[in-house]
Amino acid sequence: VRSFTTDPDLPLSQGRYASPLRTERVAAVLGVSLGVLFAVCFVTGLYSHLHQHPQGALPIPPRPAGLYRLTQGLHVATGIASIPVLLAKLWVVWPRFVSFPPARDAAHAVERVGLLPLVGGGVFLLFSGTANVAQWYPWRFSFTAAHFWTAWMVVGALIAHVGAKWAVSGRALRRGHVDDADTAAAPGTRDGLTRRSFLGVVAGASGILTLATVGQTVSPLRRLSVLAPRDPSVGSQGRPVNRGARNARVVEAARDPSYRLEVSGRVQRPLSLTADELVAMALHDAELPIACVEGWSFSARWQGVRVRDLLAAAGAAPGRTVLVESLEPAGAYRTSTLNRRQAADRDTLLATHIDGERLSLDHGFPCRLIAPNRPGVLQTKWVRRVVVL
Ligand code: HEM
User: Fold this and answer.
1) If you take atom 5 of ligand 1, which residue's CA is the nearest one?
2) Tens-place pLDDT, residues 245-270
3) Hey, whose CA ends up nearest to atom 4 of ligand 1?
4) Which of 32, 148, 165, 329 shows a CA-CA span of 20 to 30 A to 368?
5) What radius of gyration do the chain's Cα atoms show?
6) Residue 262 β-bridge partners
7) Are 254 and 327 contacting, i.e. CB atoms less than 8 angstroms apart?
8) Which residues line ligand 1 (CB under 6 A)?
9) What pLDDT, in 10s, does the model give residues 288-320?
10) What's the CA gap between 110 and 79, in Å, rounded?
11) At a CB cut-off of 8 Å and minimum separation 6, what does 352 contact?
């Protein structure tokens, strides 16, 4: 067993950090687990970014309807599950950070400098992500921009780290059975845990943390999820809401009897509909999820008017992109865009009802956008105008 704490490169740590758990194999197992969790986080995070920053060459399809719910639920769940794994990994390799001399040669120095973005960035991603889902913003910079660019930096540093550790980790993993047979009787132990039970404790902590939060999107588990920031059955009309009507400063405009929904832009017959006229047209039903970027979600039965029917009534040519505008006077999500396929989907609605009830003000009265496979922040509420582009 090659232990970090008996490594001759580590004079500072001799004895002081002694533990039979600090081996290359334990570090490699935790490293592979973190690599997988971070890879899932990165891919699902990029998918979320693509929703919010659409690229013409990669239009997001509206189907499968629940895909964003799955990817963003996974993003937050795998991110949270990474926390105990990262802490355990840092504990195991800690003696390396204080080894002396700090670098053996130039290549080793480069490898060690790469640990700064890897460790610092990884800790920042997990901390900023968790703070964001808890709706705590202790900083002044944009969370999404910082989280996004740090993710690229961490993934770059992770690839370099995997390259540097590939051979040594491969060897440590292949001779695994020898390691696993070792027990707490190994010399130098202070904690009485075998390597296998240490990894079991880390996996258990990760699993418990996941169960304690994932009920915010997997509703049958919601009673177990005592740490979940959201319960999918609590809120206006029994459903959570992030940004209410008062916060969005739309209460008066949404209740104003002179409210009209306008359909304009590249149309032959611009429309202007009262809230009652809209309800009279709201004949289509769809069971669709609403999936928040923060990882919580729920599924509901929405009733409303199909966007494609509104466009046809206004004489728009088929296959147009559509801008949906809210009554909100300001805010990053005041408008959202539906690409051609999203606008033409049979279940893309301006909804007037949720689960058979007229939408409450907080859910977007007089009408809101609900479309398949979209982040909640793009399901524009209090819609005042649909502009055909
Ligand atoms: C506890 C861990 C994490 C949590 C709770 C978390 C949470 C979030 C949330 C809430 C968003 C949506 C932000 C928004 O659109 O408003 C997001 C986006 C994102 N996350 Fe994470 N995250 C975590 C870890 C990670 C990790 C480890 C990576 C990469 C390795 C990552 C990469 C991304 C990326 C690329 C985005 C897209 C940002 C954008 O829209 O520009 N996240 N994350």
Assistant:
1) 129
2) 999 999 999 999 999 999 999 999 99
3) 129
4) 148
5) 26
6) 272, 385
7) yes
8) 38, 41-42, 45-46, 48-49, 52, 75-76, 79-80, 125-126, 129-130, 132-133, 144, 147-148, 151, 154-155, 293-294
9) 999 999 999 999 999 999 999 999 999 999 999
10) 28
11) 275, 278, 279, 282, 303, 304, 305, 358, 359, 366, 367
CA 17 – ligand 1 centroid, Å: 34
Under a CB-based contact definition with an 8 Å cutoff, are residues 372 and 287 in contact?
no
Give pLDDT tens digits for 131-182: 999 999 888 999 999 999 999 999 999 999 999 999 999 999 998 655 554 5
- pTM for the whole structure: 0.92
209, 213, 218, 223: CA torsion to nearest 10: 100
Per-residue tokens: 130? 């968790």
Full 3-state SS string of 249-284? CCHHHHHCCCCCEEEEECCCCCEEECHHHHHHHCCE
In angstroms, the Cα distances linking 341 to 61, 66, 265, 382 are: 6, 16, 18, 23
Name beta bridge partners: 351: 304, 368
The pair of three-digit structure tokens given for residue 63, joined into one six-digit string: 């189907």
Tokens at 199, concatenated: 């990894």
Mutate to test the pocket of ligand 1, among 41, 143, 297 (most ligand atoms within 8 A of CB): 41
Q: Taking a C-beta distance cutoff of 8 angstroms, is the pair 50, 337 a contact?
A: no
